[in-house]
Write a structure and sequence with these properties.
The chain is an alpha+beta fold. It contains five helices and four strands; from the N terminus they run H-H-H-E-E-H-E-H-E.
Length: 141
């Protein structure tokens, strides 16, 4: 306790008024306190399965501004997380009332189709209408 007093003696008055912490030894830290009730999450009792979104590899997108001026932006790209973010940002720059049309392959599974819907669903809250559709067998919309 004398070491703490030596330190606080030379400290400025505003720091001397802080309450001193009780010193604890390693043995104190190893022994559980009576308040301790175990870990907050018991992984042996609850298992959370990771939700995996299977995105289609190739999509065609069309962004149509609300006012119709400035033309449309059409592109075909690999749907990586980075490209999805780039597409979403371009749709936001088109302004409120803009429309994003996403066309996926006709052979895409229902899970992949749902994953694409979920990927761009947040744009609805920002005023961008989103339509996800399957393409035709011959590659046209």
């Amino acid at each position: 306790m004398r070491a703490q007093e030596d330190v606080s003696d030379g400290a400025p008055p505003r720091l001397r008024s802080f309450p001193q912490r009780a010193s604890r030894t390693r043995a104190d830290l190893r022994a559980p306190s009576p308040d301790w009730h175990g870990p907050c999450l018991l992984l042996t009792q609850t298992t959370v399965a990771a939700e995996v979104h299977h995105l289609p590899s190739l999509v065609r997108t069309r962004i149509i501004p609300a006012d119709g001026r400035g033309g449309t932006l059409e592109q075909t790209s690999w749907l990586t997380p980075y490209d999805a973010e780039t597409i979403a940002q371009a749709a936001l720059r088109a302004g409120p009332g803009a429309r994003l049309e996403v066309t996926v392959s006709p052979t895409v599974s229902a899970a992949s189709f749902t994953a694409v819907n979920a990927l761009f669903a947040w744009l609805l809250e920002r005023g961008v209408a989103v339509t996800v559709q399957r393409g035709d067998e011959n590659g046209s919309r």
